[in-house]
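Hypothesis: this fold can be encoded by more than one sequence.
Test: take the structure tokens below, design a sequence, compare later.
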């Protein structure tokens, strides 16, 4: 049981025991005309999705597996910024509920002690010139005592980090509160206001990193992000480079 402190987000909640992916269901509900802020949550996903066709492990009753329908009036190329906005909101929610300071791994991972506790997935349905809907998915490991062997090195849960059984409903309510606030702030004033908060929580800024983008891999010093959420890297030739999306590697010294 939890009280929602939001105006629109979570006004309609669709709860399922088992789904393939809350993203798939949310796309359907969006196409059927459901309003912005409608959320889909499931106890278990049998085919949870990460980016680029990757799998998201979503065992029964242990996490927050949720997708929210958004209908922002944004240009199509601005949509990826929502991932960064959501990351800051989820960091805040984790802090407010558990006291844990998670960090952000560009563009869409949240880490605790360098292990992934949550991931964000933004998918868009658009006409050539207009966004129809964006389905923003958040997956968070909450209660798992163990993560699968193949993820042992890279994944964690709030339980594993804190040894406390965090109430998933209360945490979800907090995520929705923070998300609504950051989303509205972003739509009103762009990324400028959120950017310093993002950079303050981001891992690897000012450090040597490799960004593996879709078309290119850049190694150098991470400088931060632009006002459009693009990662800035000073490469080894002294040129400033911009990477739009991809995966980061840190170098542990
Ligand atoms: C993500 O992709 O991190 C986005 C994850 C989004 C999941 C939510 S759950 C609700 C909604 N419905 C869905 O079907 N999806 C969204 P990516 O950055 O591509 O990371 C995927 C990688 O994370 C995998 O290849 C694994 O290495 C790792 N991974 C998989 N499951 C994990 C888990 N439960 N915890 C931590 N890491 C995991």
């Amino acid at each position: 049981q939890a009280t929602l402190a939001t105006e629109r987000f979570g006004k309609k909640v669709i709860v399922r025991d088992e789904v393939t992916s809350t993203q798939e269901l949310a796309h359907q509900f969006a196409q059927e005309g459901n309003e912005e802020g409608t959320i889909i949550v499931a106890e278990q996903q049998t085919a949870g999705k990460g980016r680029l066709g990757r799998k998201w492990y979503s065992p029964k009753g242990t996490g927050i597996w949720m997708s929210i329908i958004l209908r922002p009036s944004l240009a199509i190329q601005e949509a990826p910024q929502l991932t960064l906005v959501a990351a800051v909101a989820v960091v805040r929610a984790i802090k407010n509920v558990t006291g844990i300071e998670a960090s952000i791994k560009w563009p869409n991972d949240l880490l605790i002690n360098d292990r992934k506790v949550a991931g964000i997935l933004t998918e868009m349905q658009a006409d050539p010139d207009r966004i129809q809907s964006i389905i923003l998915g958040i997956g968070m490991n909450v209660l798992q005592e163990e993560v699968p062997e193949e993820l042992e090195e890279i994944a964690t849960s709030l339980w594993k980090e804190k040894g406390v059984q965090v109430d998933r409903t209360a945490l979800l309510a907090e995520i929705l509160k923070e998300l609504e606030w950051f989303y509205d702030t972003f739509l009103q004033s762009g990324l400028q206001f959120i950017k310093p908060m993002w950079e303050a929580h981001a891992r690897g800024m000012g450090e040597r990193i490799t960004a593996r983008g879709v078309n290119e891999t850049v190694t150098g010093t991470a400088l931060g992000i632009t006002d459009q959420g693009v990662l800035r890297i000073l490469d080894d030739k002294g040129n400033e480079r911009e990477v739009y999306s991809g995966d980061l590697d840190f170098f542990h010294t």
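Residues 29 and 69 are 8 Å apart (CA to CA). The helical segments are 22-31, 81-98, 158-162, 168-189, 195-201.
Hypothesis status: open.
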